[in-house]
Design goal:
alpha+beta, four-stranded antiparallel β-sheet, 2 helices, 20% strand
């Protein structure tokens, strides 16, 4: 499975918030930007997640972050990388 495949639900939700997926040179980089091109959230392969959520409402931000965390945890599980025990809480 490709890195981007893990994030399809998160990308669809982001698009419903009028966020746009940006393609990076790296295949292991998923980024959603607001309409002005400001990054809202991204996942970068082995580097993890970064959230810059003040461009969307807190309720929307929380759902989007949860979708990204779930996708990233699945990516790590498939790679057989350890996932923090408290990340499911």
């Amino acid at each position: 499975m490709k890195f981007a495949d893990y994030f399809q639900d998160a990308i669809k939700y982001g698009e419903s918030l009028e966020l746009k997926q940006t393609t990076r040179l790296s295949r292991n980089w998923i980024e959603l930007n607001d309409l002005e091109g400001n990054p809202v959230i991204y996942a970068a392969g082995d580097l993890g997640l970064c959230v810059n959520g003040y461009y969307i409402l807190p309720e929307q931000q929380l759902k989007l972050v949860k979708l990204f965390v779930s996708a990233y945890e699945q990516y790590l599980a498939d790679k057989k990388e350890p996932v923090a025990a408290d990340s499911a809480e």
